[in-house]
């Protein structure tokens, strides 16, 4: 029996374990949202750090 995981961003079913949606949301997200939302957020975060140097 596989556990059913729902993406906390788009609400779609995730096949497999999905990805951590943090820091955007606490929970799991699907491949699509991981690429489109979370990675963009992480890049922005690191860009902001680099600008402070
Ligand atoms: Zn999603």
Task: Please describe what this structure looks like.
By secondary structure, the protein is α+β, with helices and mostly antiparallel strands. It has one domain (5-52). It has 1 helix and 4 strands. The chain has one helix at residues 31-52; strands at residues 5-6, 13-14, 19-20, 28-29. The strands form 2 sheets. Strands 1-2 form a two-stranded antiparallel sheet. The chain has a two-stranded antiparallel ribbon with strand order 3-4. The longest helix has 22 residues, at 31-52. It is elongated. The model has no long low-confidence stretch (mean pLDDT 87). Zinc ion is lined by residues 7, 9-10, 12, 29-30, 32-33.
Task: Provide a brief overview of the structure.
The chain has one helix and four strands; from the N terminus they run E-E-E-E-H. The chain has one helix spanning 31-52; strands at 5-6, 13-14, 19-20, 28-29.
What would the keywords be for this entry?
single chain, 53 residues, alpha+beta, two-stranded antiparallel sheet, two-stranded antiparallel ribbon, 1 helix, 42% helix, binds zinc ion
